[in-house]
């Protein structure tokens, strides 16, 4: 039984972040491991309510009250088993997911929600520290072969589910290392890459084969995959960055897509190992940096800019500053609320500017950017279209030697494999799936951001697991695999 008074006895608490002057001098994770006492205290706040809406907030259907109570009582091994029953990679979600489960926590109606994400990551840490992450038993070989294109969380989750069901699985990755966006898109101060590497040891031991440096559609054709495999899963992500080609000066030197900056920084950190991190082709050192965008990617760029030694940083957001607490009329519990979300990078420096839009990237006279001209704006909607109106007389310039566009993604990239498989992108730049997760091409499945557009890591894992279940059924596998979502499932929303 849960402690019925736990939430009354303990306030919500998180472990202290590493001090700003210390952490911006390296690339290690911001949060140190939490002490067992703190984690068990916070898990005690879970009420194990009669209808746990955290289950619906999380597309994986994580058994959150179960493993909270197991942590409360100190049964870490059972907590590890309960967590892994629904989530292949809790060490990733516990670090990277924005935690829609916490927004749906029943305690959050009248109090601060349970620190679900923190408890989750500490269970994952304990799993590795105690040697509990071992190769799982694998079913007898089915003689069926599956190719997974893309090694992000969707592709890896599907691969693990399928190989455990007895199918032979090969994961193709065009980069030189496995992990997709986790590897070269997410900075180390949020996810040190050793967490990926040690999970890959488990997958390889279970039988997953990895082939890196292979660009499917170029190095290997769709026809070759069809000939060599009984099914193909496309999990290539949604990396086509949204751009502003209509803004004057967009072609100036020094204006880049955010992912160009992040990938270069991640590669530099990987190459440095334990040594000093060298400069990158798109480096913020000694520069005035302007980041356009208000989401996770923008915050990642902000943290990287601090560690590279930026002279100053402005982060621009098109929309007004969000409220600090949930607007129940706009976003009633248990839906995901529109709130001001401050990331650790924001306490490290920089200035956030809301309700502004760039009117021009200003030339320094040599073809490089020297400033951005911004204006305050109002944003309205008409017939489903966003209308951005500059406020007269509000224009001003901000110095800018480096501008990073972090304004979202337009779906999966246009690439040769799509035409070769006979698959097209929809109006959102994503690839549609039938109810059985197949694309328009029979035997070719899709999951993750490539299917739903840029989204959360929990949705990627959930879709990977669900697509694996559909592939298993398609191949005539015995029994069923867990499918936490359907191809048409959407997040909780107010009607």
UniProtKB/TrEMBL annotation:
GO molecular-function term, one example from the UniProt record: iron-sulfur cluster binding
Residue ranges constituting the FAD/NAD(P)-binding domain according to the UniProt record: 145-464
Domain of life the protein comes from: Bacteria
Keywords: Amino-acid biosynthesis, Glutamate biosynthesis, Oxidoreductase
Pathway(s) the chain acts in: Amino-acid biosynthesis
InterPro entries: DPD_II, FAD/NAD-bd_sf, FAD/NAD-binding_dom, Glut_synth_ssu1, Glutamate_Synthase, Helical_ferredxn
Any one biological process term the GO annotation gives: glutamate biosynthetic process
Stretches assigned to the Dihydroprymidine dehydrogenase domain: 24-130
PANTHER family named among the record's database cross-references: GLUTAMATE SYNTHASE [NADPH] SMALL CHAIN
Protein name per its UniProtKB record: Glutamate synthase (NADPH/NADH) small chain
